[in-house]
Amino acid sequence: MKHISTTNILIWGGILIFIWNESFELGIPELDKQHKHLFEVGSNLHELIDRVDYEDVYDDIISHVEELKEYTIFHFNSEEAFFDTYGYSGSNMHKVEHQQFIDYLDGIDLSQVDANQQEALLDLVKFIAKWIFKHINDSDSKYAFEIKQKQNSN
Ligand SMILES: [Fe+2]
Ligand SMILES: [Fe+2]
User: Fold this and answer.
1) What's the whole-model pTM score?
2) Cα separations (Å) of 149 from 18, 82, 146?
3) Ligand 2: distance of its center to the CA of 77 in Å?
4) Residue-wise pLDDT tens for the chain (154 aa)?
5) How far is the centre of ligand 1, averaged over its atoms, from the C-alpha of 131 (Å)?
């Protein structure tokens, strides 16, 4: 399938794909490293799209979603610790966004996934990719801007 480049993201078969580029860079090395890893985990889930037409990938979907959830929670906790350290002004709203994403992952109906793997996998990858890209570009960029200013003024 063809890769189509848009402004800062790549689309493959109509779905955003997890390929890192500098537009996602916040300039806070520890958190950039975590975002890159989050992309890798997302990519593992995306790659199942190649196989779902031909084979049962239920166990892989479940394990990659589980991995994504664990790493996401670790990453959100790291960001929130940064907010506390630097007294980030948008902390409360940002934490609500994090919680909403965890709730989404928690709320995935596994019986539905098994019954219709193809559609369920596409829905999952679409939602997760869109959420992560938007969250980093919008919400994470905001804290990065404020926290870097605070770091520089110390
Ligand atoms: Fe983040
Ligand atoms: Fe965040």
Assistant:
1) 0.89
2) 29, 13, 5
3) 9
4) 334 444 445 555 556 778 888 889 999 999 999 999 999 999 999 999 889 989 999 999 999 999 999 999 999 999 999 999 999 999 999 999 999 999 999 999 988 899 999 999 999 998 999 899 999 999 999 999 999 998 888 7
5) 11
